[in-house]
């Protein structure tokens, strides 16, 4: 029997699907926090989510006939729902609303690991040369330079700034290795947003979001958002790039043990490069999250 | 009898054939996953299948020959000790803390690899193993409890000649000895041995394969009718508290260990080689390229010598000692009085001269006996196929040490014998060339050469952080003009240190016995933990990061910047 999620997790908004990809008038099924869900979109295009009973994937359904509905919110191109009492707001990504950006969902990838492990991997720069060889990093340039991490009390999020790394192919226009600067936000226990220097406009930054859908404590789906200043690449190019990256992460993450993220500082061996991961683990611990993690024994 | 996580028995966990060149084999014993790999020197390692950093399986790692490299962040672990030798995210740091993976006992015998869940029981060959040329059959995995598998094997015996059941899940049926490897509560592997090599190997292997396949089908059909047993729940051991606190730097007061001088030989004119090994044949502690050990000499002095060893080579330490007549009784004692078979006290390896492995070009410049740490570095770079050049300057051909060791390297190794000072300088300048991004140079040699190379590097535009060297002597002028108080926390005593006197001297005058050796801030013997106050470091023992941590100091030369220091004495 799966354990019931902690109240914090239960009351969070969770991503369940890319809204555009939800078929109108057909059922799609998924799993959230060990709970079976059914989803569809009405003829008005609005997503509807409910607790699944005997519906099967692909069944025809009239969204109006669904009376017992879960709360729904659409944001950043995705459909979000909540199994408890949701907060009024979802975390902000102000850049998403800028008119000249290309916003796109880059697909959803199932990973047999806990959602917090996937978040931590997203925050990690040290693996670039080894896992994303010749794309996000390459040997011998393996150094993770000192960066800053803080937990913003006011916004209740983990913030890592001045993260720098030498990348061989930071952007399509890049010639030779260049140092890129990243800012990472963790505004939600299972979501993270990355800001990356933009090759087309020095004053602005490309935004990449990763939203994890915790299906069970040890399984998740990673949903990707890109919000780019890029006037040349096609959507297919940009999607393919992100899917390559996540395709490289998947086999590594699925070989990580334990699959749940251990919050006891003595369960693994952090180094200075892992400052953001340490802050993230502490933040989860302080919030009282127990879903998908191994809590610190008190 | 249910399986126990703390079962002390030895079981076969793999066939020798499962460990081909540079492979990492994934095994399992009593619920614990294992990463099993053979190093190029033949040694087989059985480790917990999990990198200590982020828990990724080591069985998907890369066997680099003498080190295993994790796929996720490229951490490297040494053959034998499973100690971490390199963390690529911090290429300029020596992993100062002892990060060591959990390892299990190992023995290779009868074409099988044997291991146990713990060290409680010494390995003993199975009864009746003597006097045969054993032949290993192909293993057969079975999804059934190990107990049921043993019973199934026993039923293979004819009624008039019952099977022999031996301890540790061994069954003897006719001429075959069957071993059942308890993988987990509901899974086992059958491994069989024949006492002699059969005439027709293939036919024999096929015969037993068919026999075991039928047995497996029967056992798995029976197991499917029973409730599946609860898998064993091994726990991952916690790392030590000092490893879990991230950035703090603690300088360990290294333990001393006793080694035996296995071999002493003339490596070149004026250079004596010493091979030091554990008395009981165990492996020595992990080291990193550039590391040195303190050798406690029979006359009470302590001297530092760099290790020349390559990666994962922990069966012995090899050092080179210069037999110079002018030596002040340090090296001289080693050269003249220490013999093969003598015991010596040495410290654990320490590294003030770490090798970055993130360079696009590495230049190693050795002068005379300075070849020792650079030989170690060259061997590490060589094994990882990283580009490097080694330039070895000697007085003449006869004084070039470790020739055979240098001869087997694949990189660019150049010897320069008998060059005059100006010619050396010109050669060094030509070799280094103008600075380029991610180039690094490492120098070890006489003081004058060190200064010369630093000067040449500066002239060619090389930044300080790309020029690496190490001091074994403190040639700096010690500034002893400050005056301050030291509070000795454990001795409950406050002393005033006047200008012109060291902390060490002041403590001795107050009647304290404090260990020291070189008294010039080079050997590390008087290392002391600092609890409060700001240290004015004047030694050459601590590295930059250690100095910046302000947690420790050398009381023989270093002083206080603040009015008061609190020491853990």
Compact description:
The complex is a heterodimer of chains A (298) and B (569). Chain A has 298 residues and is of the alpha+beta class.
The whole-angstrom Rg of chain A is: 19 Å
Helix content of chain A: 10-25%
Work out the helix count of chain A: 5
Secondary structure class of chain A reads alpha+beta
How many extended strands of chain A? 15
The H/E string of chain A reads HEEEEEEEHHEEEEEEHEHE
Widest sheet, order of strands of chain A: 7-13-12-11-10-9-8
Beta fraction of chain A: 25-35%
Q: Please, what is the CATH homologous superfamily of the largest domain in chain B?
A: Rieske [2Fe-2S] iron-sulphur domain
CA distance, first residue to last residue of chain B? 55 Å
CATH uppermost class of the largest domain in chain A: Alpha Beta
Unreliable stretches of chain B, pLDDT < 50, 5 or more residues? 247-252
CATH architecture of the largest domain in chain A: Alpha-Beta Complex
Q: What Rg of chain B is obtained from the alpha carbons, in whole angstroms?
A: 29 Å
GO molecular function (chain A): 2 iron, 2 sulfur cluster binding; dioxygenase activity
Protein name (chain A): Aromatic ring-hydroxylating dioxygenase subunit alpha
Domain Vanillate O-demethylase oxygenase-like C-terminal catalytic (chain A): 113-286
Pfam family, one (chain A): VanA_C
Textual characterization of the structure:
The complex is a heterodimer of chains A (298) and B (569). Chain A is an alpha+beta fold. In chain A, the strands form 4 sheets. In chain A, strands 7-13-12-11-10-9-8 form a 7-stranded antiparallel beta sheet. A 3-stranded antiparallel beta sheet of chain A has the order 1-6-5, with no helix packed on it. A 3-stranded antiparallel beta sheet of chain A has the order 2-3-4, with no helix packed on it. In chain A, 43% of the residues are buried. Chain B has 4 domains: 216 residues, Rieske Iron-sulfur Protein (3-layer Sandwich), CATH 2.102.10.10; 92 residues, Translation factors (Elongation Factor Tu (Ef-tu), domain 3), CATH 2.40.30.10; 109 residues, Nucleotide-binding domain of ferredoxin-NADP reductase (FNR) module (Rossmann fold), CATH 3.40.50.80; 84 residues, Beta-grasp domain (Ubiquitin-like (UB roll)). By secondary structure, chain B is α+β, with helices and mostly antiparallel strands. Chain B is built from 10 helices and 34 strands. In chain B, strands 11, 12, 13, 14, 15 and 16 form a 6-stranded antiparallel beta sheet that branches. In chain B, β14 and β15 form a beta hairpin. Classes of the chains: A alpha+beta (298), B alpha+beta (569). The interface between A and B is medium-sized, with 32 and 37 residues.
